[in-house]
Amino acid sequence: MGGRGRSRRTQRKHFRDGRENVWKNSKSDPQQEENGNNTNKPTHWQPFAVENAFFDEYYKEQGIVRAEEWDSFIEYLRRPLPAAFRINSSSQFCIDIRSQLEDEFMKSLQAEGTDGNEAEGIKPLPWYPDNFAWQSSFSRMQLRKNKNLERFHEFLKQENEIGNLTRQEAVSMVPPLFLDVHQDHFVLDMCAAPGSKTFQLLEMIHRTSEVESLPSGMVIANDVDVQRCNLLIHQTKRMCTANLVVTNHEAQHFPSCHLRKNRVNASELGMTELLFDRVLCDVPCSGDGTLRKAPDIWRKWSVGMANGVHCLQLQIAMRGLALLKIGGRMVYSTCSMNPVENEAVVSEILRRCGDSVELVDVSTELPQLICRPGLKSWKVRDKSMWLASHKDACKHGRTGIVPSMFPSGQAHIDASDIDQKITPGEICDDGNLGNSSNGDDEGEPNDVLVTEVSSLPLERCMRIVPHDQNTGAFFIAVLHKISPLPVFQTKSNKNPRQPHSDNDEKPKQSEDGEEKDNNGMDVDVLDVTNEESVEATAADACVLYNESDDALLDSNPSKKLKGTEPEQVQTPNKVSTRAEKANDKRKLQIQGKWFGVDPVVFFKDDAILNGIKEFYGIPESFPFSNRLITRNSDTNHVKRIYYTSESVKNVVELNFLAGEQLKITSIGLKIISSEGLPLLLPHMTKQIACASPVDFKHLLQYKSIKFPDFVDNGFREKIASVSLGCCVVVLNRGNEGSSDPPKVDKSTIAIGCWKGRSSLSVMVTAIDCQELLERLLVRMETEKGSCLPENKPVSESEVNEDSETIIG
C-alpha cells in the first residue's frame, strides 16, 4: 500500500509541478550563508528562459509543423497566453452580458491593445456558437496590473464569481463542443478538475430546459485527487444544478455499478449498470501545450514526461469506452503536442477495439476553428535515443517503451534475443523480451531508422497549434461506439505474474477453475494492486478492460469502504469467522460509507417535508418523493437537504443496489437556500410578494428596510401578510403583480428575504446584490418617484443568518 500511495502522490506532484508560478525567487549562495556573508539585500525576482534545446530538437524531428512555420510557431509559444472567457449560456443575463461586451467593452478597450502589437482589445471567438466565448488581447498579468483595464478586470472577476462567466483557456472550450450533448444525455467527465469543461457540459444539459422542470440528463464529474474535487465542487456550485454528481475515483477504475441478474429491483430503475451517452476523456498529460500559460514547463520539459503517462492515458480511454453506450460518443483530448500521448493512444484504441469503435471526422463541425490533421508517422525518443519501432526498443533494452507507442503498435519478438530460460515466442512477465540486447544505453541505433507509418485514419484527429489563432496547443479525437467492445483474450491462469491471495476479490470462475468472461472465453484479469508507477510495463500498465466484467475493480486499493478496512489491516494469521464476515457485510449495507466522505442518504422525514410544503404553499404534485438527499445518517440532526433530478435519483438508487461503489463527494443542490430558489419559485403559492422597481432597488442597496419605508402601499400590505421567516420578493415589471401568486418565467428576477417583526432583510450576498443592481440599470429605466429619506434606514436586523432555516 505504501509504495502504491507514494507512486500516486508522485504522479500528482509531477502534474502540479508544471503549474508552478512563472516567477521564482533567485536562490542565495549556500557557501555565502555558511560563511555568514548573506546580507539582507532585497530579493530579486527573475523569469525563467522560455526555451529548451531538447524541446526544439524533439518537435522538429516529429514534424508537428512544417519547417518554414517553425519560427512563427516557437515565437507564439514564447508569448503570454491571451485571457479568454465564456458566457454561461444558461444564465438569466447571458444576452445582457453579451450586449455589454459588444457595445461597451469592445469599443472602450480597442485603443489599449497589447504592447503596441494589436489594437483589438477583446473579440468573440469566431468558432464558438452565438458569440458566447471571448478572447482578449491582454494577458492575465496585464489585466491585473494595467490601471486602464481595472474596470474590465473587476467585471470579469464579479461575473465569474457569480457564475455568469467562466474564465477558461480558449482551446479548452473545444472538446465539449464536439461531444454534441443533448439535455437527456448521461455524461461522464472522467478527469474533471478544475471544472471549467464540466460547467460547460452542465450549460448544454440545461440549455433548453423549461423553467418549471429539470433536464432528464445528468453529468457525473470525477477526479482522482480529493483536493481537486473540492476545487471542482466550488467551480460547479455556481451553476446551481440538481443534475450533477461529483465523484472521487481513479478514472481508469471508474465503477459501472453493475447489478447481478438476481436483483429484482433492477427492472424498476430501467438500468442494470451505469453507462453514458457521452464521455469526456480529457486525460492527464505532460501539458506542453500550456507553455504560454505555464512557462515554467520550459525548463522541466523532457521526453520522459510523455512516455511516462502513455499507458495511464490508454487505460483511462479504454475504461471510458467500456462505460460508453452503444451509439454514444467519446472525446479523447490532451493539452499536449506529443504524438506518444495523442495519435499513439488513439491508434492503439482503434487496433484493440476493431470495428466496434470508429474515429469520426468532425473537422467541419466548427468551420472557423483552424485545426490540423493528426500525424500518421512519428518516432519515440527515450533519453538520448531515437526509436522508430518496438524492434529498436527491444534491441537496446528500453524496457519502459511499449509497442503501443509506435505507429504500427506491433510488438517485436526475435528468437535470437530471447534468453535460454524462455520458450521461443513467449514474452516475459513485464511485457518485454527475456534478456534483450545489453547494448549501450546512449547513442543512436547503428542501423538507419525507418519510421513506421500508420494505416489507420489518424488524419481524422485534430491538432490545434498556437500560431494559427493565437491560442494554446491542444489535441482532440472523437470516437463513436458502434457495437460492444470485443472480448480481449489472453492466456488464462498460465501467467504467474500476480497470484490472488486468499483475501483478494477473485474474478468470476467456471466450474473447472479457469477465469472466464461472460461468454465463457478465457481472459486474464489484471490485479491493479501490482502497479508501482506511471511508467508501467506493457503487461501491467497497458492492460485492457472487458466492459462486461468489473471484477478487476474490486482489487483497486482506492475502492475500499469503511466496512472492509479491518480485513485490510489484519495479520495473515488472524482468520475471521463466518459470523464476523457476515456482520461486516451487514455494516456495509447499512452504513455504505467511504473513509472521510459523508454517506448519501435519502431524506424521508414526512413531518418536515409536509412543513415545507405547507409553509411555502408547494402543491403535492411537486416531485419530492425520493428526490431529497442528506449527508447525515442520523436524520435527527440534519443540517442540509439536497434536491436531485430524476436521473441523479436513479443513479443513487442503482449505486445502493450495487453496493455503493461510487464515492460521492457532492450531489444535488441545497433546496432551502438561494441555490434552490429557481427550482421552487415556479411552484410557490405562499411567502411570495411582488415589489415595485423602486422598492426592489432599495432592498438591494440597503439590505434591510423597515416596513413604513417601502414606497409601494400594495407591496407593504402584501409583505405584512406574509408569515415571519423566509420569503421571496419578485421584481414587478408590470405583468407579475397582476396575479397572485405572480407568474414566473426565465426572465423573472427574484431574491430571497427574511421577514422580521418590523423589517424585511435581504438574504443575498453583497456581490449578488451588486450584480442585480447593475442589471436593473441596464435592462430598465428606474421609476422616478418617492425615495427613501436621506439617512440610510438602519434597523436591528432580525435576520436569521442561517439561510437553511425552513420555517420562521
TrEMBL record:
Gene3D superfamilies: Vaccinia Virus protein VP39. Residues 1-45, 424-447, 489-521, 554-583, 786-808 are annotated as: Disordered. It comes from the Eukaryota. SUPFAM superfamilies: S-adenosyl-L-methionine-dependent methyltransferases (SSF53335). PROSITE patterns: NOL1_NOP2_SUN (PS01153), SAM_MT_RSMB_NOP (PS51686). Residues 499-519 have a biased composition (Basic and acidic residues). One of its GO terms (molecular function) is tRNA (cytidine-5-)-methyltransferase activity. This is Bacterial Fmu (Sun)/eukaryotic nucleolar NOL1/Nop2p. It comes from Cynara cardunculus var. scolymus (Globe artichoke).
